[in-house]
């Protein structure tokens, strides 16, 4: 019988890295993660205490208070899209988190996607990118077949910015298309309506399988103020579309409840009626286990300077159960590590960039830099990715990549063709794929390693992540190449021209370095979330459980009949 030969990897922290370097790395990261923690706190506060008090004065709970009541005890909220619109101003106003919370939440033992209007930010209005953020949450739920819970308290579009949120392919109306896609795929959708639900906010819950309305809630195509202006009728919005209308007359809602807490309790009850999670079945009798080496070590193992290297096996040893891992094709394409480990008892495939300097078997006695994709590594990743697809194994991509090999030899070996092979593989995989940008995410290597354009279910960044085509200094040299000599020095002898070129190169480098900031990427939805290193293991636990929770919608082969066994058998030494 074929079995998965998991073996111990990793070393104790003091054997993997000396105390001084570890402390230096940890201190540098701590500064950046303190910024991350402070930014999260500001987003969670919405528009501030005054607006929290306004919500409470109406007898309602805030969005995050509702979520805290909804989730299972001792479970954690895993927000995605926290930093959408981060740093953007709309006139004098900001929209923390784009005015909506999207989060993976465990309810009645099942992972769900919760989408909750932040009623402390312009009464839960939709800003530019709010609709895209909601749709991204719906897409994640659809890919994993997770139930969706809408906690609706939305006064419609933020009208001063309507031109940037109403039209377009991913405008507000596309949310309802996603509602329909989820319904067509049989994904349960449950809505709680807690307050203002005007125009699009009123449409959002309607396709849900269950709709609960509190006594303060209403759903209307147009609110009382608009009707008064258009038809000279003096009505309240509750008169037009409150629970009396929609539960007892129109049938657009199912159940009328007195308040927020009752609605949350009823929604939890609905989740308990769904089929149970398949996670235990797919563990194949294995017990979940923490990594043998603590995940907290990750705080100091990775240098903040992207030019410095680390041992990626030490990272894997702090992510997989009991630090046990089966590396596939270990002697080929050494710049890449591919293999299988368990996370919370569930099998996951891992693809990671090795760092440092490695042997170059094709050029005897030569060395080459890792963190770059060469021919053999690309072929190895493609083979492994296809096998995971055939075997139904979810894939985690751990990116720290500078790009593809370049030059005469690279072109002669056909790297363009091998790269397109990998791109095809990643584009057509149906297994859930998750991407973590540990540090560098550069050039076409970012694409090849299942970057955001290749639609991983979730892409995470860290406080060290740098996304770009190339580094700021390199791009400045490329932009001013005609003004430089063969040694990349300024060719002009004119002092004024030299000063102008120097200033132009400096400004270009600074702008590119700013563009590489993870908060900018997260603000414009080029990554899904920025996370702390000590949270990575818990994120992977979510990914593994969410991948195996729902059964029957994708191939999940038992580990005795994996294609990976054939690859291993054909590449192991004979005799």
Short note summarizing the structure:
By secondary structure, the chain is α/β, with parallel strands linked by helices. The protein contains 23 helices and 21 strands. The longest helix has 26 residues, at 19-44.
Please describe the structure with a list of short key phrases separated by commas or semicolons.
575 residues, alpha/beta, 2-enoyl-CoA Hydratase, Chain A, domain 1, 9-stranded mixed beta sheet, 8-stranded mixed beta sheet, 39% helix, 19% strand, globular
What does this structure look like?
The strands form 4 sheets. Strands 1, 10, 11, 12, 16, 18, 19, 20 and 21 form a 9-stranded mixed beta sheet that branches. Strands 2, 3, 4, 5, 6, 7, 8 and 9 form an 8-stranded mixed beta sheet that branches. Helix 5 runs parallel beside helix 6, helix 15 runs parallel beside helix 17 (415-428) and helix 19 (472-479) packs across helix 20. The chain contains 23 helices and 21 strands. The longest helix is centred in the first third of the chain and has 26 residues, at 19-44. It has 575 residues and is an alpha/beta fold. It has 3 domains: 45-276, 2-enoyl-CoA Hydratase, Chain A, domain 1, CATH 3.90.226; 280-465 and 527-568, 2-enoyl-CoA Hydratase, Chain A, domain 1 (Alpha-Beta Complex); 471-523, no CATH class. A hairpin with a 5-residue loop joins strand 13 and strand 14 (366-369).
